[in-house]
Amino acid sequence: MEIAGGPGSAIGPSEPVPETSPPGTGPILVLDKLQVHFGLRQAFFKPKVYLKAVDGVSLEIARGETLAIVGESGCGKTTLGRTSIRLIDPTGGRIIYDGQDITRTKPRDLMWLRRKTQIVPQDPYASVNPAYTISKILEEPLLVHKVGTPAERQERVNAALEAVKLTPPDRFVQKYSHMLSGGQRQRVAVARSLILDPELIIADEPVSMLDASVRISILSLMRQIQVDRHVAFVYITHDLATAKHFSDRIGIMYAGKVVELGPVKAVLNEPLHPYTQALMNAIPDPDPQNRFRTLAALPGEPPMLINPPTGCRFHPRCPIAQAGLCDVEEPPLRELRPGHQVACHLAQ
Amino acid sequence: MPLLSVRNLVLHYRTRKGLVRAVDDVSFDVEQGETFALVGESGCGKTSTASALLRMLPRNVGSYTGQVELDGIDVMQLSDEDFRKDVRWRRVSIVFQGAMNALSPMIPVGQQIAEPLIVHLDAEKEEAIEKAQQVIKSVGLPPYTMKQYAHELSGGMKQRVVIAMALVMKPSLVILDEPTSALDVMTQANIMNLLKGLKKEESLSYIFITHDLGLSSELADKVGIMYAGRLAEVGPAEEIYPNPKHPYTQKLLASAPKLRTEDKPDSIPGTPPDLVKPPDGCRFHPRCPFVFDKCKVEVPPYYGETDRAACWLLEPGR
Fold first, then answer.
1. Interface of A with B (CB under 8 A)
2. What is the DSSP letter of B135?
3. What is the mean pLDDT of residues B263-275?
4. CB-based contact A112:A98 (threshold 8 Å)
5. Among A3, A48, A43, which Cα is nearest to A306's?
6. Are A316 and A324 in contact (CB under 8 A)?
7. Between the CA atoms of B103, B106, B111 and B112, what dihedral angle is there, to the nearest 10 degrees?
């Protein structure tokens, strides 16, 4: 797979520059009509087709807030997270980090960004080097960024272990990852993301591989860190229920687009988009009466991102879609309530 | 008489570290047409209980004892060959966790569904295919799915095929081992609706294995909460969800994040014990907020009439 500019994705100087503010004052991250199209060649002589993983996403992340990005698999939420810190190159739109446009900065000029932004990956069994001790795993980012003396680095390693409640640190520094449980490994991954004191952490399904009771402790820990250190989190997940309890704002993604965005309470108490409503209806809370009811589930599957439906991408599955409107015209994201945006023609 | 009656079921594995007590003295009943949900954290012995019921055992079995009565037959007395012929898949079938990824890529799914009929019932091929067509229809798939290959189907459709495979022999009991864990929420909701419909129409009995208390309430008439190889609490759904008696059940319910209430989920401190050396007395005592001396020494019996929990707090006169 190769990354390439799709049709109409030129990053030209003619596009209006989003409002930027001096460093340290505005939002930590602004995405403006971000586009990531992957070029796929299905056969050697066939023309390339473009998989529109992220297609025109605009949002802001404030300092010290947690924004949950929720959607089903294949909706582009992971691509969005990785692109927003330039781990994937966008094919259109802009990324403004702390007032600075980083859309096309060369990777070698992005070392400062690598220090300020971190990622907590999904699978703690795959993301922690089995040949390294915990101490080495945590020290490595400090060595890469040439931070401190050996003694200072050791101190930071211990502090990070304490922050993720792997205490006392002495018990863990010389261990290898195979000696730890899944939850402890994920704590190591969180500690590693903290070691450089970042401003923004992208947590990509950080608990989906963990047991239900361990999930809550890891999420509570991340929430605690966010409050204590004023770090901004992007929490990428498919689980609305944990997003509800561990985030400030929530963005619902469907087929490469953000369809609803707003404060957690507003979105979940009054979901405006039919897709958000459908997602909520599909999740049961523990209740013995559930077995006498049918879940209001949508038929069908999310669309292929190579040839997404015209108009609103949700219209083929939407229970309230209107012919002649929803299948023709793409709904823009509109602010219907203060801070609460929705991309639906029919939402009021 | 219940459809399935399990008494003092034990399944231990031999390992280099010692004997793993995966299932340790488990007893429960499943009535005809009833769903029994077996709920617990990973490694608590849920799937081992299913393996024990289907006698699908690895080579390192240390001990495998207890009474299992199904349809009035004492199945533990059967030889392996009789069990294979008469019980497995004919009376009890299973939808494995992630089974949809185990479909053969080389054989059309219709033939894979029909296969057990040919193997077990010596059915003619045409007859088997016809029965497979009926079951394909009953799981909500279009007839042409019969001729398709696994790679042509989406995750939700493959899971329906796997459910069809479990139903084709018309077993009296179907074990569902995390049947939706690999699926998206919307697909999961559709599969749960399918399972509910089948339960009602065909009066199926299920054992539904899951770690998700919200999901378990989608099917469960009766719930068994499993912890460290034992059942901590067994009771009707109507009692156990609103009024859990065992502290572990209470903690497990409190740790489930809920979408419709503001209650913050609360984590359970500590980790589940090593099943090689489970704690003495009540196995939950090292993590229990209400622990007292007796819990550390003596194994609690079950207290209660319909909702029975193994906890010393429920001892009469306390």
1. 72-73, 181, 183, 211-214, 216-217, 220, 238-242, 244-245, 268, 278-288, 290-291, 294-299, 301
2. H
3. 89
4. no
5. A48
6. no
7. -20
Instruction: List the single residue in A212, A280, A297 with the smallest CB-CB distance to B259.
Output: A280
Contact B215 A284 (CB under 8 A): yes
Cβ contacts (< 8 Å) between B187 and chain A: which residues? 301
The predicted pLDDT at position A20 comes to: 58
Query: Rounded to whole angstroms, how far apart are CA atoms A35 and A92?
Result: 5
Q: How far apart are CA B174 and CA B153, in angstroms?
A: 23
CA-nearest of A110, A117, A98 to A28 is: A98
Total domains in chain B come to 1
Decide if B259 and A281 are in contact by the 8 Å CB cutoff: no
Q: What is the pLDDT of residue A111?
A: 93
Interface test with B, best of A291, A298, A301 (most B CBs within 10 A): A291
* Alpha-carbon gap: B13 to the closest alpha carbon of chain A (Å): 21
Residue A19: per-residue pLDDT: 54
d(CA B264, CA B256): 9
Q: How many residues belong to chain A? A: 348
Beta strands in chain B (DSSP E): 4-15, 18-30, 35-39, 61-70, 73-74, 92-95, 173-177, 205-210, 222-227, 230-236, 302-303, 308-310
pTM exceeding 0.80:
yes
A16 vs B170: CA distance, rounded Å: 65
pLDDT in tens, A74-118: 899 999 999 999 999 999 999 999 999 999 999 999 999 999 999
Greater model confidence, A149 or A13: A149
% of chain A surpassing 90 pLDDT: 77
Q: How far is CA A28 from the centre of its chain?
A: 14
Whether A101 and A32 have beta carbons less than 8 Å apart is answered as: no
Q: Which domain holds residue B264?
A: 4-91+171-314
Is B160 part of a structural domain of the chain? Answer: no
Query: Which of chain A's residues have a Cβ under 8 Å away from the Cβ of B214?
Result: 241, 283-286
**CB atoms B255 and A239 under 8 Å:** no
Asked if A72's CB is within 8 angstroms of B255's CB, the reply is: no
Give residue-wise pLDDT tens across range A191-244. Answer: 999 999 999 999 999 998 887 778 899 999 999 999 999 999 999 999 999 999
| Inter-chain residue contact A290 with B42, CB threshold 8 Å | no
Is B257 within 8 Å of A298 when comparing Cβ atoms? no
DSSP string covering B77-98, please? GS-HHHHHHHTBTTTEEEE-TT
Which residue type sits at A216?
I
Q: What is the mean pLDDT of residues A306-325?
A: 93
Q: Is B310 domain-assigned?
A: yes
CATH number at B203 reads: 3.40.50.300
Test the B interface: residue of A179, A290, A298 with most B CBs within 10 Å: A290
Give domain status of residue B77, yes or no: yes
Q: A176: distance to nearest CA of chain B, Å?
A: 19
B251 belongs to a structural domain: yes
Give the chain A residue whose CA is nearest to the CA of B194: A294
Is A298 close to B186, i.e. CB distance below 8 A? Answer: yes
Predicted local distance difference test score (pLDDT) of residue B44:
92
Chain A hits for B242, Cβ within 8 Å: 288
CB contacts < 8 A (A, B): 118
Q: What is the C-alpha end-to-end distance of chain A, expressed in Å?
A: 41
Q: Which two tokens stand for residue A221?
A: 């820990």
A211:B265 CB<8 A: no
Q: Are the Cβ atoms of B184 and A72 closer than 8 angstroms?
A: yes
